[in-house]
Fold each of these.
Amino acid sequence: MTALLYALRGAVGAAHVLGDGDLAAWETDWRKRYRGRALAVVRPASTAEVAAVVRLCAAHGTALVPQGGNTGLVGASVPDASGTQVLLSTTRLNRVRAIDTDNLAMTVEAGCVLQAVQQAARDAGLLFPLSLAAEGSCTIGGNLATNAGGTQVLRYGNARELCLGLEVVTAQGEVWDGLGGLRKDNTGYDLRDLFIGSEGTLGVITAATLKLFPLPAATMTALAACASLPRCVALLALARERAGPTLTGFEAMNGFSLALVRRHLPQLRQPLAPAPWTVLLELSDAESAAHARGVLEALLETALERGLVDDAAVAESIEQSRTMWHLREAIPLAQAEEGPNIKHDIALPVSRIAAFCDATDAALARAFPGSRLVNFGHLGDGNLHYNLQAPEGVAPADFLREHEAAVNAVVYDAVVAHGGSISAEHGIGALKRDELARRKPPVALSMMRAIKQALDPQGLLNPGRLL
Ligand code: FAD
Ligand code: ZN
C-alpha cells in the first residue's frame, strides 16, 4: 500500500478508504459514457476529515475528484482512466445542522440528498424549492457545484439563487466558514458565487446555508395542447400576467417527445390527444386549491378564446397532478429506451426560442434527413433539452459516432447566433470542455483560468474538467 493510502486510512478510518474491489459504481458516470479508474474512493464523515484528505492529497501531489450523488450529466464526477486520482465521496456528510424558521434558512452538509433536504424543510413547515428528476440521488453539494436548475427556476431561481452561504475546504486543505443566513452582505468579492458552478475545480463544498420559503397551500397542474412554439411562448406571457408569482412551472414537450413516452411507457395515461406541442403549467397558491384551480381555468379559457391553445386538462386531484409530471419526467427514460441520442442542454432568451427552433430544426432536417428531434424542457426559463435521435431504422450508436460533432456544430452555432448558452443547467465537465474553450470569449476564459490558478495553483482539484 502506498504511503498516501496508509495516511488516508489514518485520517478517515480504514473502512472508508476503498482501494481494491469493485469500485465501478463510483467510477462510471450516470449515462455510462465515462468510465474511469480511481486510486481509491475516500469517504470522509466531517469537514475536518475532508480537510485532512485534501491536505494529504496536496502533500502527495495527488489529484482529487469530488463526488456527490454521481448523477451529473457531463462526465465531471468520475476519475479519469489513469488510476492515479483519489475520489472523494461526500455521501457521509449528511447531517442537517440547523433550521432557522424565522430567518427562512437551513444549514445542511454537502452530502445530504436533495429529497432529504426538501423533506427536512417540509417537516419544519417550509419549502426548499429546488426540484429535479434526480432528486432521490443527487446531493446538495453536487447541486451547488453544478448550479443545478430543474423545474422551479422561473419562480425560485437556480441553486445559486437558493444559497445564502457555504462552507468550503480549499485546495490547500483550509476550511472557509462562509455559512450564515444573511440576505445582504456587501463585504467585497462574492466568494460563495465563485464556488457555485465550479464543478469541483476550486474547492470542496462541505456545507451550505439554503433559502427556505413558505409552503404553498396548494399546487395545481394543467396540460395544454399548442399548435406551435410561438403559441407556447404567448401562453407563457398570458400565464405570467394572470398568475404572477404563483406560476411555478412551465414545461414544454414537442410531439415526438410524448410519442416516445407513448411507445415505451404505454402505461402512462396521456390526457390530451397528440399535438405539435404540449405545455405543463403548475401554479403554487398561498390561498387554496380552489383558488388555484379558478385562476388556472380562467387563464386557459382565455388562451382557448385567443387560439393559443387547442385543448387543455386541469388536474382533478393530487394524483392526476403527479401523472402529468410523470409524463414530463418520463421523457428522458423514453428517449433512453429508444437508444442514445445527441443531447444539448441549451439556454436562449425566451423571445428567441421560436426563431432558434425554426432555423435549427430546418438545418438539421436538411443535413441529417430522417433524424428526429426530442425537444422538451423548462420553457418558462428559456432552457431546452434539444436532442437529436437517429432516423428510424438507423443504429443509434452508429448515428451518434458518425454525426455527433457535425450535429453539435449546427446546434451550437445557432445557439450562439441567437444569443444563447451551450450549457443551461448541466455544466461543462469533460463533455463540453473543448466546446467551451472554442466558444467562450477569450477575456472570460483568461479570467476563469486566473481564478483557477489563484485558488488551486497545483491544479489538483478535478483536473481536466471545465477548463
Ligand atoms: P455529482 O454528479 O456527484 O457531481 C457533479 C459535479 O459536482 C462534479 O463536478 C463533482 O466533482 C462536483 N461536486 C459534487 N459534490 C461536490 C462538493 N461537495 N464540492 C465540490 N464539488 C462537488 N440537472 C439540472 O440542473 N436540472 C435537471 O432538471 C436535471 N435533471 C436530471 C435528471 C436525471 C434523471 C439525472 C440523472 C440528472 C439530472 N440533472 C439535472 C443533472 C444532475 O442531477 C445535477 O447536475 C446534480 O446537481 C448533480 O448532483 P450530484 O450530487 O449527483 O453531483
Ligand atoms: Zn432539465
Amino acid sequence: VADQPLFARVAFIGIGLIGSSMARVMRRDHLAGHIVACARRPETREACLKLGIADQVTADYAEAVRDADLVVIATPISTNETIAKAIAAHLKPGAIITDVGSVKQAVIDAIAPHLPSNVHFVPAHPLAGTEHSGPESGFAELFQGRWCILTPLPNTDATAIEKVSTFWRKAGSKLQTMQAGHHDKVLAITSHLPHLIAYTIVGTADDLAEDLKQEVIQYSASGFRDFTRIAASDPVMWRDIFLNNREATLDVLQRFTEDLTALQRAIRRGDGDALEKLFARTRAIRRSVIDAKQA
Ligand code: NAP
C-alpha cells in the first residue's frame, strides 16, 4: 500500500547523535509508524520525547524490541554483545536488526551468534558524524551525500538488505557493500588513524608546560584547532573502536612518534582506561580553543 510506512514499528537501542539523526529522517519522510527509544538515562529518554523523535521511551531492552519490525542498535560498540543477548528472546519473527557501529567484524562477532535464526541482521556503518553526542545533537541532514557501508553476511536475506538500503537512500546516503574485514582495514586508514593522530597531538599539547600550552591554544588557528575538533569526539565510542579494530589499526601505526607509540601500547594491551583518560582529557582542550575564540 502506497501510504504505509517502510517500517510499522522501529526500536532504537541507543539514540544519540546517530540514532536520533536516523529517527529524524524517519519522522521527516514518514518511514516509521511508531518509534520506541531505549536508553539508560532518564534525561536521554526525556529528551527524545521533548524532541518528538520517539513515541515511546523505555530503559528495558525487551519492551523496546517487542513487535518491532526494525531494531537499530546505535550504542557504543562495547555494549553490543550484552544488548544482543538481552533482546534475542524478545524479537518478532522476521524482524530486521541493523546497527551503525564504526567497526564491523567485531560487531558481527558480538551480535550475530546470539540472534535467533528467524530474524535478519544487516550490519551498517554510516560514514557521517560530528564530535557531538546525545539525542539533541542529531539532525536529519547528517547523512546527506555521505557514504553508508553495508557489510551483510553471505546468507543475509536480500529483502531485508533492500529495506535497510531504502532507508539509507531516503536519508540521502550513497550505498556501498563490503566484506566486514575489508571495511575495518579501509576505515583504519581513513578514519581510525586520523583520529588517533589527533588524539595524540592534542594529548601531547596538554602535557606541555602551562605557558606553552596557553600559546598553543592562542595560536591554534595555524592547524592545531582542527585536530582539537576531531580529538573532542566521544571518548567511549573511540575507546571501543580501537579495542575492536585492534589489528587493522596497529598495521597502519608503525611510523609515529613517542606518544603514538604509547597509545599503540595501550591499545595492544587493551588498556581502555588509559585510552579513555587521554580522550577525555583532549576533549577539554577543545573547550579551551572555543574559549580562546579560535574555533
Ligand atoms: P552517542 O551520541 O553517545 O549516543 C549513544 C546512545 O547510546 C545514547 O542514547 C546513550 O544513552 C545510549 N547508550 C549508551 N550505552 C547504552 C546501553 N548500555 N544501553 C542502552 N543505551 C545505551 O553515540 P553516537 O555518536 O550516536 O554513536 C553510536 C554508535 O554509532 C557507535 O557504535 C559508533 O561507533 C557509531 N557511529 C558513530 C559516528 C559518530 O561520528 N559519532 C559515526 C558513525 C557511526 P544513555 O547514555 O542514556 O544510555
